[in-house]
Design brief:
11 helices; 9-stranded mixed β-sheet; Spore Coat Polysaccharide Biosynthesis Protein SpsA, Chain A; 20% strand; alpha/beta; 267 residues
C-alpha cells in the first residue's frame, strides 16, 4: 500500500493538476493523505469536489514558527501521522508528477529503503527551466554533503514506512525533508533515481526560494515574482547548527537503543 502525504495551504491555483497526476498513478488500495494548514482560499472546496475515497483530508492547527519552513514541516508531520502505507511518498501542492513516477520508485525500492529522484524545474506554466535538478545543483547523497548543501527535497523522495519510527516527531526548527534524508544516511540504504519523475514548479507563491543561479540564467521577464534566496550568512549557519545538534542527539538515542537491544539478545 502506498501513502502519498501532501501539505496544503492556499494552493487553489495549482493543486488540481497535481492531484490529478497523483491519483492517476495510484491503485484503489492506495491513499492520498492531505493535511491542510487552514487555507482561506478554495483549496478545501477543490479537495472535496473529488469525492474520491483514496483522498483523506485532515486539518492542522497552524501555529507560529520560528522559520518559514517550520509551517510546512509541522503540516506534513500531521499528514505522516495519519499514513497507513508501507511506502511513503511526499508531495507538494503545486508540482506535477510525471507519468511512471510510482513505477520507477517502486522498482528502485526493491533494493533500497530511501530513494531520491531527479526532477525538471519548470515555471508557473510548466515551461522547462532546467531539465535536470541533479545536474543543475549537483545533487548527491551523504551526510556532510547535504549539511553543506541540502539536496534532500521532499517532493522527490519516497521511502519505506519504518523510517518514520526514527524520523517522527520532527525536531523543532528542522526542515522535514532534510531531516528524513539525513537520518536515512545512518539507518538504511539510500539510492538516487536518475529519471526525472516530477515537474518542480517555481512561481510567485512558493514558500521556498528559487535557486539564485537559476534566476540569473533566466530572462528578466521569466524571473519576475520569483523569490531569490535572501537568507543571510548568519541564518545559514544558525539553522545548520540546529540540524547538527538534533542529529547528534538522535545518534545518542540510536546508540542507546541498539545497546539495550543487544543486551536483551544476550539475556
Amino acid at each position: 500500500m502506498i501513502s502519498v502525504c501532501m501539505a496544503t495551504y492556499n494552493g487553489e491555483k495549482y493543486i488540481r493538476p497535481q492531484i490529478d497526476s497523483i491519483l492517476y498513478q495510484l491503485s484503489l488500495n492506495d491513499e492520498l493523505i492531505i493535511s491542510d494548514d487552514g487555507s482561506t482560499d478554495r483549496t478545501m472546496n477543490i479537495l472535496k469536489e473529488y469525492n474520491d475515497p483514496r483522498i483523506k483530508i485532515y486539518t492542522h492547527h497552524r501555529e507560529r514558527q520560528k522559520f518559514k519552513y517550520g509551517y510546512t514541516t509541522k503540516n506534513i508531520e500531521n499528514a505522516l501521522i495519519q499514513a497507513n502505507g508501507d511506502i511513503i511518498f511526499l508531495s507538494d501542492q503545486d508540482d506535477v508528477w510525471i507519468d511512471g513516477k510510482v513505477k520507477f520508485f517502486l522498482k528502485k525500492l526493491e533494493k533500497s529503503d530511501f530513494v531520491l529522484s531527479d526532477c525538471s524545474i519548470v515555471d508557473s506554466c510548466l515551461n522547462i527551466l532546467a531539465l535536470s535538478k541533479f545536474q543543475f545543483e549537483n545533487v548527491k547523497m551523504g551526510f556532510w554533503r547535504n549539511i553543506y548543501k541540502n539536496g534532500y527535497m521532499g517532493s522527490s523522495m519516497a521511502f519505506k514506512r519504518f523510517i518514520l519510527n526514527y524520523a517522527l516527531p520532527f525536531p523543532k526548527n528542522v526542515p522535514h525533508d532534510m531531516w528524513i534524508g539525513l537520518i536515512s544516511t545512518v539507518i538504511c540504504k539510500q539510492s538516487l533515481l536518475y529519471e526525472s519523475t516530477l515537474l518542480y514548479r517555481r512561481h510567485d507563491l512558493n514558500v521556498s526560494f528559487t535557486n539564485n543561479r537559476l534566476l540569473d540564467k533566466l530572462k528578466k521577464t521569466n524571473a519576475i515574482g520569483l523569490k531569490k534566496n535572501s537568507n543571510n550568512f548568519i541564518f545559514q549557519i544558525h539553522y545548520r547548527l540546529i540540524v547538527l545538534k538534533n542529529f547528534f542527539v538522535f545518534l545518542l538515542k540510536l546508540a542507546f537503543i541498539n545497546k539495550e537491544f543487544i543486551k536483551v539478545l544476550q539475556e
